[in-house]
Amino acid sequence: MSYVTEIQTVMAAAFDDLAAAIAAKKVADAPHAREAFLGRWVAQAVKQQRFHHSVKADLQRWTQRARSAGTQAGLGAEFAQIQTVYAEWFPVGEPAKPVHNSQLHQWIDCAVEAGWCVHTQDKIDRKVKIISGGQHSMAVCPDAMQTAFDDEQQLVSPLSVYVRGPEQVVIGWAHQAWIAPTRVTAYKSIVKYHAEYRIWPNNQADGLMVMPR
Predict the structure, then answer these.
(1) DSSP-assigned states of every residue in the chain
(2) Which listed residue, of 13, 24, 89, 201, carries a Cα 20 to 30 Å from 175's Cα?
(3) pLDDT, tens only, 61-75
(4) Structure pTM?
(5) pLDDT at position 205
(6) Could you tell me if 8 and 76 are in contact, meaning their C-beta atoms sit under 8 angstroms apart?
């Protein structure tokens, strides 16, 4: 079971169960009541091990947030966004679309055109520091890039991209190139002061893609 398929199953089940509870008059059709229901729902899903283990970390994260934030957790809004975005990117029943080297370079070119400091020539195999003079920066290991793409220039293994800059901007560029990165770290990575994102063959990640804002 792929993560991409399972997360859509989770979202559909959450909203189906919520609609059924509202129809049965077990839950009021009001924002706070819907949010409280979803908080209980994710906790039960974890306890019952209802879904594939690929989405376990997401369910646990949402459970913790619901416990700490209550009806202010924002689960309904996040679930609705995930459902909409994944339906657009990964329509059920349609074959996955490969990610090509040209798409990665389209993403990199956006950073270049925006005046970012871009590093794609230096090997990244240990803790490194990039001197960018205060500029936003992006780095990709050339050796990793070469091995991640096959002879047809299709991505065949996950590839890390390191970024120091506003996430909403860099993810917007990625989505324009039809690349769906996941976030590995938000700040600390092998490249000092850079977040690490990962891109995946066919955009079929093992975790939630970074959502557009």
Answers:
(1) --HHHHHHHHHHHHHHHHHHHHHTTSS-SSHHHHHHHHHHHHHHHHHHT-S-GGGHHHHHHHHHHHHHHGGGS-HHHHHHHHHHHHHHHS-TTSPPPPPBHHHHHHHHHHHHHTT-EEE-SS--SS-B----TT--EEE--HHHHHHHB-TTSBB-S-EEEEEES-HHHHHHHHHHTT---EEEESS-SSBTT-EEEEE-GGG--SSPBPPP-
(2) 13
(3) 999 999 999 999 999
(4) 0.92
(5) 97
(6) no
